[in-house]
Specification:
2 copies of one chain form a homodimer. Chain A is built from 18 helices and 14 strands. Chain A is an alpha/beta fold. The first copy, chain A, folds into 2 domains: about 325 residues, Dihydroxyacetone kinase, domain 1 (Rossmann fold, 3-Layer(aba) Sandwich); about 190 residues, Serine Threonine Protein Phosphatase 5, Tetratricopeptide repeat (Alpha Horseshoe), CATH 1.25.40. In chain A, helix 7 links the parallel strand 10 and strand 11. Strand 14 of chain A pairs parallel with strand 1 of chain B.
Chain lengths: ~550, ~550
Amino acid sequence: MTQFMNRKEDIVTDAIDGAIRASGGDLVRLDGYPYIRVVARADWDKSKVALVSGGGSGHEPAHAGFVGPGMLTAAVCGDVFASPSVDAVLAGILAVTGAAGCLLIVKNYTGDRLNFGLAAERARAFGLSVNMVIVDDDIALPDLPQPRGVAGTLFVHKIAGGLAENGGDLASVTAAANRVIEGTMSLGMSLDTCTVPGSPKEHRIPEGKAELGLGIHGEAGIEQIAFESAAQAMQTIAGRLAPCMSDMPYAAILNNLGGTSALEMSVLSNELAVSEIGGRIKLLVGPATMMSSLDMRGFSVSICPLGEVDEQLLAQPCPMTAWPGAKTLGPIETLQLSDRLTPIKSLSSEHAETAELLRKCCKILIAAEGDLNALDAISGDGDTGSTLASAGRALIVSIDSLPLADHALLFRAIGQELSQTMGGSSGALLAIFFAAAGDGASSGLLLQDALKAGLQRMQEIGGARLGDRTMIDALQPALNVLDKGIGAAAAAARRGADYTATLTKANAGRAAYISAVRLQGNIDPGAEAVARLFEQLQT
Amino acid sequence: MTQFMNRKEDIVTDAIDGAIRASGGDLVRLDGYPYIRVVARADWDKSKVALVSGGGSGHEPAHAGFVGPGMLTAAVCGDVFASPSVDAVLAGILAVTGAAGCLLIVKNYTGDRLNFGLAAERARAFGLSVNMVIVDDDIALPDLPQPRGVAGTLFVHKIAGGLAENGGDLASVTAAANRVIEGTMSLGMSLDTCTVPGSPKEHRIPEGKAELGLGIHGEAGIEQIAFESAAQAMQTIAGRLAPCMSDMPYAAILNNLGGTSALEMSVLSNELAVSEIGGRIKLLVGPATMMSSLDMRGFSVSICPLGEVDEQLLAQPCPMTAWPGAKTLGPIETLQLSDRLTPIKSLSSEHAETAELLRKCCKILIAAEGDLNALDAISGDGDTGSTLASAGRALIVSIDSLPLADHALLFRAIGQELSQTMGGSSGALLAIFFAAAGDGASSGLLLQDALKAGLQRMQEIGGARLGDRTMIDALQPALNVLDKGIGAAAAAARRGADYTATLTKANAGRAAYISAVRLQGNIDPGAEAVARLFEQLQT
């Protein structure tokens, strides 16, 4: 698959440079490209214990994204999924280690153990105090004496890093790291493999299957299981973690392996909370992409028992964007719906003349149904007539229950009626027209100006302008001359409606997608409806 | 493609519940499931202007992830890629709007405009002050009168939200939102389409092509272009944005559309910085997944001119994890490599007996090359003999330049020599063995104990234990009795080596992957090498 990279050989240095540029001056790198790729804190003064981690690249934001106050001092980056060299690790150690010493946090892979281990020996030969811990949190392969290090490593970074930031000495920082490693367990599941830069993608996991217990380097999981749902996926993971847990409260990391959508990750958060281990999780870190496997569509859950000290260290804020913080995994609080959600119906009032006018309008629209549908069949889906006629039929039934004696209340009531009985965009737009006209009338505008205010709001929200081949082409000229009488309005509406037949490009609504040839010579059905209404109200 | 969800109908409510549970008590929802899906700030007291946004789901963390102090007050969530209903929007407005009023921030899609617009009318009928702004930042389709709203919407949330948080009134918050909308432009590019929950994936973009100017709902881009590299991709985007930019400094959002790996996003950060618009970008937000299109493998760049006030509001911290902060897009600072990276060679010293012993060891290993290779062919790749013989040949040449008279210096020097001349895991492990033995000798340990310290460090780092079918099975028993003379050590080493032939399960190294049948009856080549060394040193 194509990827956003330049030369494959440069992907790690390009990415490191990008991370440094985007860090706002918080990160620097060693001047050792291309072989030595070390990212370090810009503000580091060697006054405290340094924490150095790293390994192969392809796990971003790990590890460079976690370099900063309270976590790592430096990250040593290898090629994608390959350990950095001894020299690179040594360069990292030498760059950040002062009298307080340095802790190397290494994930349990042979290459990392050896290269970090050898670098530690060379650093010690210079008289530096260097300790090393090996993270082996993966429980996918229970019989293997050397479990892999995966996302649980972040607990070590955060808790040991927090202690170092608070001034802990090398022995206590190392002890904290080992305490976290002792209790941390992780397990992952994926629906698809990752795409290694420059390599063809391996399609290993068939549709409907999930791989359980995969690593973070594209290696196959211990088993492929039938995938049913997010709930079943999380139950499977929780079911494997649960037997290993003690009675202590736990922290959990919900890690996106890279390609899972944020929507799905939130679904998984919910499933984790309601899973058999959910009640024992006090703090949740994530969901977030923290220890990725490039673009893998999967997730992992890591858990760590929380003593009081570790809980404080884990929750201690740190400024790096990649660290999502540790938050209590909580219940769902809800707010009651407002009782205003059901529209208040205005009390009906009598006004014979208005009732008559309204009834007449409805009848005009009902009578126009066939003609308007025919016009709409040319530019749309042929239902403008039916939509307006339905609204007319509904309104005619409820006329006597309307507040006929008050324009402001009446317009609003018509708006409510239309929003409930007339579907689609046109229903919503007419509802907005009448609601805003009601607002205008209520604020003291005269009838014509209130209706014009309604038109303006409808245009703001609908986005159509004069000449866009909509009902506005008839309605706007009509309202503009309404003070000169219904005859003037009708003439203006007709001129506007006829004008739409000359418009060969619609800019709004569905007609925007219709070719000019089809539109030519045909009046817009909305504009025709408006013109007929005004014309027939004269009679 | 399979996805981490349960019932398709529940994906949005499941995800909202997950987001609320993971918010640490910062978020609540309205009690209106399944139709009314509104997420709101838990700490909201209606004392300031409320900001309500939302729209279709599938853009996570937008919009619920941006609900919190300094951004949104509430998010109204529709189905995936579908506008929420009028009632849902109204419920959101009613839940959070106090005397200071409410600003609706709506992306420019017909459904959202209408539903938010109509809800605003209904809220106004209750006497609430409600303004609405329409975000139309997409420049993909320059001729369309109604450009889409995409990731640039986040500038509006942050700047208007910051002003509201600081106590701005509705008019000034609305003016700020409109000012940001006026200047904001966005453009996206993708290498693959997104996977809509429950629908088969459309494979629209062929290998080697990228789609330019796509929306955030899976709709096709304006054109498919040949994709060459991250640099070309960003140059294309920057080239379209540049002509629209003024002389002001700008902020940029680098948005992951969902499925792009973090590694690639960092490469794109670098390319943005060095692009033709890089020098005009003062603040960068991201790279991060902020306005996603489910799992789309793509990115977008949004830019916004930065007046002084807007710059402050954009940079103002806010606590939501989804907001990555706005940081200066900076140069790359580097640190010089330590001059200790080149190992210091100890001065040579003479000691005839030691030189003779070393020479003898080398010759023994060189002579054993063929036999050891044959043994390794059974359990590994057949090169143990050659690896050890090469190291022996290199060492024998340099014997006279070694610090022969000082055990501590000598062991360290041998370690250095091996780390440079002997490849693979075994080279690194032996280098660690000698380096740690040198440390032990330097700290005053006697020869046997120094070598045992070396063994211990090698085991710590390599992870192999007695019985794991490695050289340790011969070396450890030999070192344990070294004080009883070379004869005792040789006998112990031989017993240990022979014992490995009975071990049918290797737990470390490559042999861990070989079947028991193949291993049965064959001595581990590393253990054999150790046994031969001690045996032949006797003679």
